[in-house]
Structure formats: structure tokens, C-alpha cells
Design goal:
Elements lengths: L1 H20 L12 E8 L4 E8 L4 E7 L5 H18 L11 H17 L4 H6 L12 E6 L2 E4 L3 H12 L4 E4 L16 E2 L4 H5 L6 H11 L6 H20 L6 E3 L9 E3 L6 H15 L9 E7 L5 E7 L3 E6 L2 E4 L8 H7 L17 H8 L4 E2 L4 E8 L4 E2 L2 H5 L3 E3 L13 H9 L6 E6 H6 L2 H7 L4 E3 L2 H8 L3 H17 L20 E13 L2 E2 L6 E3 L5 E7 L16 H21 L1
Parallel strand pairs: 4-12, 5-6, 5-13, 13-23
Antiparallel strand pairs: 1-2, 2-3, 7-9, 8-9, 10-11, 11-12, 14-21, 15-16, 15-20, 17-18, 18-20, 19-20, 22-23
Bound molecules: adenosine-5'-diphosphate.
């Protein structure tokens, strides 16, 4: 095994050189022959993929995912290497139970083949079946009652409800894996007046939840959608309980007046937890997600009612007849052309988004006259590690970490809303900062293991040791930390007025730092819906049979989404969209 890893590593180094000297690809060839490597962040570590190609064929795929858990890394590596070789394209199905590792392998393989001069769309078009024969896409017609577009959190929540209601429906997912941006949600789900809050003696109200959300969104939010989210949140927590997706651990998250963010018991990221539970529930219920199947166009009849959609799959072009469509295809944070169209100032900003977040739902709905709201409202997340685009969860600050600039000084109340903290970072020299925490915080927050394993952390037994590694004046950083610990002792932040995330001081060595800066995180704007998740057109009328939920929708979060509200949004409105579609087709 060690030998294989060494071979991969040395090939990996070699192939960067090969790639640098690669010449333009001849028109008739698919690749520039050679060995190419790339890596992408997996669950714990960057996974490495090295691919050997001839002019017309992928000859060999070596995958090193050994830093992931042995089961995940090993299984995904061998299965995906075979699948990519057989299909002759990187766009193959993810290995179930190893979604994040599979995603990373597929991403790295795509990058390596792109370095090899491949046009990935062309490889997809030439996709081979398992026997190695070229696949010719046929035209297929399908009929069902409802189609859900997108298998992220909102789409899967909707699909579970539709199946529980015994309806005939299809769920399409354009990527080879489910989960979308939902997989990346790290914090938790905001909900008020839940049984967990009551059991833990936390006083909260749906009115306070709504007020916090409006305040956090600079009152740009649609108050009716916000009220629905707040009022349905406790029930949504009960529903999650009922499908085995319990979120009992409650803590504080930026912009909330009380402890309201609900997370899994073991402290794991809420997104991957829910995606796993939702997929398991769908599998239990016998629902197959149509992977690698991209919705391309919505179809309406002469009265303007939804009557179907077109989609492109691995081996077929589908025309699907149906009575209702639920758009749950996420935002557009991975589509640089689209976000720079609405926000030219964001050109070149790294994104934390999953590759499927390309705004397809918005474009399809607009063609039917759907209205858009707050489309230019794009949230930057303040703590994104820039070389991997990995998001450092808000819980790190919520549990007590501080931010310092290159001078080693705090510069903001770290738990202000995301836009405010991001703006403060962009004012610092170099437009970045460091998040600082200690061993005690690491011991209580499982997410940190991922950052340590991915080598994102700088660590030392003393804070001065951390400072030295970061090129910060050790005396300044040591004073910042001492001042901070004094603030925690007195529970009074005389510097920046922080009032939350102050339960534990930072006094347990070793000390840690991660360099972070803002990254594109959430597109708050999108399709206009009413409280029943019906899509509303530019004349203020519902488009009959068209529903939308999740990040594809605008209005819930206004000008700034609070941490914990995306998960509330997808679970609550995913279910509302399903219920409305069921009522509509009755
Ligand atoms: P949300 O849960 O808010 O809906 P996610 O980003 O978690 O958002 O999920 C959206 C899903 O929709 C992603 O998995 C994405 O790949 C998928 N998707 C996006 N566009 C299409 C499309 N045209 N056809 C099918 N699936 C799509």
C-alpha cells in the first residue's frame, strides 16, 4: 500500500511538470498523451488522482484516498477507478456511503483530464457502457405525476414526503451524487420552541426567531416567508426526529438572540448528516434518484400550466410528462458567469459551493416568466480556507475562537453577521485573517479534526509558537490572547462588544490557527415564491404546477442569511413544496 501511495505521489509531482509542457490538443484527439494529476479536498484530506491517457483513451486511473477513513477511501478509490476507466469519463456515479470522498475523486479526475486537454462534455457524450461500447443517447418518454428537480436537502425532503404520500414521482439529479450544497452545511438548523430547547431550558419564541432573521437579513426578507419558516420550525425538527435525523445539540450561532441552532449529537456537520439520513430514508422507501440527469427545460400547455420537462441523462434525452414540477436545484454560487453578471465586484472570489450550484432552476423558471427577488444578494462566508475552499464552520467562533489580523490583533466582534465579519476582514491588510483556538475547543468540536487532517492548521504548544509560524509579532498575539481570556473571565468585551461564544477561555495548549478569508457561500436571491412555495411570475400570479424550494428561491434570507437558516429553509420549504404539489394535482 505504501508503495502505491509513493508511486502516486511521485507521479503526482511528475505530472504537474508534464501538464506544464503539454501542447494544444490536436482536433481529432481527445487527450494530449501523458500522465496528469490533480487533487481535491475529501472528507478529511485532499485525495489525489493520477490519470494516464493516450490520444484517444483513458489508460489508467490511480487514486490515493488513504487519509480518508480506510473503508471510505479504499472502497471509493477502487470502485471509482474502475468506473472511470469503463465509462471513459470522470462523471460516474458516487459510491454510496462515501459521497464526499467520491465527490472529491470525481472533481480531481475532472481536473486531471482537463489538464490532459480533454473536453469533459465531449467525454460525457462519448460515454462508454460497462462493456466498453460507445453509448448513443436515445430519446425516451416518461410519464409521472410530479418531478422533483435536484436531490439536495430541499429536493430530498420533498421526495420523502411525496413517497410517504404514495404519489408517483421522479427525482432528477444532474450530478453523479446527491447532496448539493446541503452536504456542505456545517453548523446546524435554526428552530424555535422545539422540544429540545424546552428540555434544555432554553426560552425562545417563533416571533423572536422571525425578528432575528429579519434583522440579520437587513429587513429585505419577505416577512411572510420568514414567518412561515419560524412557525414551522419546531414541527420540522419533529419530522426530522421521525425519519431518524435527530438534531438535539443546541448552541449559539451568529445573529441569534438565544441558543437556537440544532445540530447532530456527535457534533458532525449537519449537512452531510442530513444528506446521509435523507438518502437512507429514500433508499428505505424504495426511491431511486435519477443521477447524472439534468433538467434542461420546463414544458407548459396552451394554458400556461406545467405539463412536463426535458432532461438529459447518461444514455438518453428524456421528455417527461407530469402535472407538477418542484424546482429544488439550488443556487448559483458555483457559476462565476452568473454571479458576476449580478455582482461584477465578486469576480475571482473563491466559492464554497458544490459544482452543481449553477442556477439552472432560475434560468428555466425565468423562461416561463418567473419573477426574481434579491438576485444580487450574495453572501460571503467570512471563514473560508482559500487553497481548498474549505469552510471553517461558524461553530468554531460560536464555541469561543477569535479572529486576528496579520498584526496579531482582534479587529471585529467575531460573531456579527457573516456580511459584517467578511467586510471587516476585507479591510485588514492582505484581506485575510487567522482564526485562533485551543485544544479544549478542538476536543469539543468534531469538525476541527477535518481541518487538522487536511493540514489547514498551524499548531504550537504556546501562542508565541503559533505567532512565529504565522510571521506575527509573538508579543502582540500573546497580549491579544491574554486580553481575550480576561474578557471571557469578566464576560465583558470592552473592545468589540462581543456577547456570545464566550463560555470557555483559550488557555489549553496546544494552540491552533487557520488562515481564512471570505468566500462565496450562499446566493440569497432567486425565484419568487408565495408561502405555499408556488412560483410567482412577473405579473404577480402563480405559474400553475410550478413550485420551488431551497436555495433556488429568493426572499427568505433577504440581504444576509443567518447561519442555521439554510437548513431550516430547505427542510421546511422542501416539505411545503411537496404538500402544495400534492394538493395541486389532487
Ligand atoms: P437546496 O437543498 O437548497 O435545494 P442544494 O445545492 O443542496 O440546494 O441542492 C440542489 C441540487 O440540485 C444539487 O445537488 C444540484 O446538483 C442539483 N441540480 C442543479 N441543477 C440541476 C438540474 N438542472 N437538473 C438536476 N439537478 C440539478
Amino acid at each position: 500500500m505504501k508503495k502505491l501511495v509513493c508511486l502516486i505521489l511521485s507521479l503526482f509531482l511528475l505530472c504537474s511538470v508534464t501538464a506544464a509542457f503539454a501542447e494544444a490538443q490536436p482536433v481529432e484527439a481527445l487527450f494530449v498523451p501523458g500522465v496528469y494529476g490533480a487533487q481535491a479536498q475529501g472528507l478529511f484530506v485532499p485525495v489525489k488522482v493520477v490519470i494516464t491517457v493516450s490520444e484517444t483513451e483513458i489508460l489508467n486511473v490511480l487514486i490515493d484516498a488513504t487519509g480518508e477513513t480506510p473503508e471510505l477511501g479504499g472502497t471509493a478509490a477502487s470502485k471509482l477507478s474502475e468506473a472511470i476507466l469503463a465509462a471513459q469519463t470522470p462523471n460516474v456515479d458516487a459510491v454510496s456511503g462515501a459521497t464526499v470522498t467520491s465527490n472529491a475523486i470525481i472533481k480531481a479526475a475532472t481536473e486531471a483530464l482537463t489538464l490532459a486537454g480533454a473536453d469533459i462534455a465531449q467525454l460525457d457524450a462519448l460515454r462508454r457502457d460497462a462493456g466498453g461500447k460507445d453509448i448513443v443517447k436515445e430519446a425516451k418518454e416518461l410519464e409521472t405525476e410530479i418531478v422533483v428537480v435536484g436531490a439536495g436537502g430541499a429536493g430530498m425532503a420533498a421526495a420523502i414526503m411525496l413517497q410517504q404520500a404514495g404519489k408517483d414521482f421522479l427525482i432528477l439529479e444532474k450530478m453523479p451524487y446527491v447532496g448539493g450544497n446541503t452536504t456542505k452545511a456545517t453548523g446546524g438548523m435554526n428552530a424555535a420552541e422545539t422540544h429540545y430547547q424546552k428540555e434544555q431550558g432554553i426560552e425562545d419564541s417563533t416571533a423572536l426567531f422571525a425578528a432575528d432573521t429579519m434583522k440579520g437579513g437587513h429587513a429585505l426578507n419577505d416577512p411572510e416567508l420568514v414567518a412561515v419558516m419560524a412557525n414551522s420550525s419546531a414541527e420540522a425538527i419533529d419530522w426530522l426526529d421521525s425519519i431518524g435525523a435527530e438534531l438535539p445539540k443546541i448552541s449559539f450561532s451568529g445573529g441569534a438572540s438565544v441558543n437556537r441552532i440544532h445540530a447532530p449529537e456527535d457534533g458532525s456537520g449537519v449537512g452531510s448528516f442530513l444528506v446521509d439520513r435523507f438518502s437512507a430514508k429514500l433508499a428505505d422507501l424504495g426511491v431511486d434518484v435519477m443521477l447524472n440527469t439534468k433538467a434542461t427545460e420546463l414544458l407548459t400547455d396552451a394554458d400556461g400550466k406545467i405539463c412536463g420537462l426535458k432532461a438529459e441523462g447518461e444514455d438518453a434525452y428524456y421528455t417527461i410528462s407530469c402535472k407538477a414540477v418542484i424546482l429544488a436545484c439550488g443556487g448559483f454560487g458555483a457559476n462565476e458567469d452568473m454571479y458576476t453578471q449580478y455582482r461584477p465586484d465578486l469576480k475571482g472570489t473563491v466559492t464554497t459551493n458544490a459544482p452543481g450550484a449553477t442556477g439552472d432552476g432560475i434560468v428555466m423558471a425565468q423562461k416561463l416568466g418567473a419573477d426574481l427577488v434579491d438576485i444580487e444578494q450574495i453572501q460571503l462566508h467570512p471563514t473560508v480556507e482559500q487553497s481548498t475552499s474549505m469552510l471553517i464552520t461558524e461553530s468554531v467562533r460560536g464555541d469561543g475562537a477569535i479572529l486576528v489580523n496579520q498584526k496579531g490583533e482582534r479587529f471585529v466582534n467575531e460573531l456579527l453577521t457573516r456580511d459584517a465579519v467578511s467586510a471587516a476582514e476585507l479591510e485588514q491588510e492582505g484581506q485575510y485573517a487567522y482564526i485562533i483556538f485551543d485544544q479544549n475547543l478542538r476536543d469539543h468540536l468534531k469538525a476541527i479534526e477535518k481541518y487538522v487532517k487536511a493540514n489547514l492548521t498551524v499548531q504550537a504548544d504556546t501562542i508565541e509558537g503559533v505567532a512565529e509560524q504565522l510571521g506575527i509579532d509573538p508579543a502582540v498575539l500573546a497580549k491579544t490572547l491574554a486580553d481575550w481570556n480576561e474578557i471571557v473571565r469578566n464576560q465583558r468585551d470592552t473592545q468589540f462588544g462581543r456577547t456570545t461564544g464566550m463560555n470557555a477561555d483559550l488557555t489549553t495548549p496546544p494552540y491552533y490557527a487557520i488562515k481564512i478569508a471570505p468566500g462565496i457561500h450562499h446566493t440569497m436571491g432567486g425565484i419568487k415564491i408565495d408561502t405555499a412555495a408556488q412560483v410567482i411570475n412577473t405579473e404577480g400570479q402563480p405559474i400553475p404546477g410550478l413550485f420551488a424550494a431551497g436555495e433556488v428561491v429568493g426572499g427568505v434570507h433577504g440581504g444576509n442569511r443567518l447561519g442555521g437558516n439554510a437548513v431550516a429553509d430547505i427542510v421546511i420549504f422542501g416539505r411545503i413544496a411537496a404538500q402544495s404539489a400534492l394538493d395541486y394535482i389532487k
